[in-house]
Amino acid sequence: DLEIRGAGNLLGSEQHGFVASVGFDMYCRLLDEAVKEVKGLPIDELPEPRVVTDIAAFLPDEFVTDAEEKIALYKRLADARELDEVDLLYGEMSDRFGRLTPEAKALIDLRRLRVLGRSVRATQIQVRSTKIEVELAAPPDREELKAWMSRLTVPVEFAAGSRFALIVRKTGEAPLETALLLMEQITGSTPAPESSTAVFRR
Questions:
Q1: Residue 108 to residue 133: CA distance in whole angstroms
Q2: pLDDT digit string (tens) for 82-118?
Q3: How far apart are CA 99 and CA 124, in angstroms?
Q4: How confident is the model at residue 44 (pLDDT cuts 50, 70, 90)?
């Protein structure tokens, strides 16, 4: 049914149409907000940031073979609004299917990145091999900035003007993990499971 409606192949690496442009979890969130609006229910005041990346992030067929189970996992991941929910799902998937493939781990990490970004009102997060950029809805106040600087070990630049952004040009060998570390240090959160960004850690 989703294939017919233009959602594309949600069970593998190919995603088409609107879902491809926003990501499956963001698509679910937008759909949820639309339903709430129709029903007159309150909509979350802290929207999730748009994440732009060229990193492959999906559940491969060889990792999760059952199609219905795969959809259920995508839905659970999309519904995870807190870090402990994301980490719980990570643990469950590891127990049930074994060590996560790079694509599956990236899917978990991107969800964690969105949750972290939401907590600091990020509007967009770009993660590429050459640059990481986090745009915020508003710049931090002086006390917030002081707290950030006391925790930051990732080499970061600040861009201010029409928008406020944090830019990392030395992304290391694992840009997604570097982006996670940046957001963890900004928010003061605990590291993601199996993080290997020791090069930037104290």
A1: 19
A2: 999 999 999 999 999 999 999 999 999 999 999 999 9
A3: 30
A4: low
Report the range of poorest mean pLDDT among 6-20, 34-48, 178-192. 6-20
CA 126/CA 50 separation, integer angstroms: 8
Residues 6+ apart with CB under 8 A from 75: 28
Amino acid at position 93, single letter = M
Assess whether pLDDT exceeds 90 at residue 14.
no
As given in the structure block, the two tokens for residue 188 are 């003061």
Kindly report the length of the chain.
202
What would the DSSP string read from start to end of the chain? -TTTTT---TTSS---HHHHHH-HHHHHHHHHHHHHHHHTPPPPSSPPPEEEE-S--S--TTT---HHHHHHHHHHHHH--SHHHHHHHHHHHHHHH-SPPHHHHHHHHHHHHHHHHHHTTEEEEEE-SS-EEEEESS---HHHHHHHHHH--S--EEE-SSSEEEEES---S-HHHHHHHHHHHHHTPPPPTT---GGG--
Gyration radius (Cα) of the chain, Å? 17
Q: How far apart are the first and last CA of the chain?
A: 49
Structure pTM?
0.76
Distance CA 74, CA 10 (A): 9
d(CA 171, CA 178): 6
C-alpha span between 16 and 3 (Å, rounded): 9
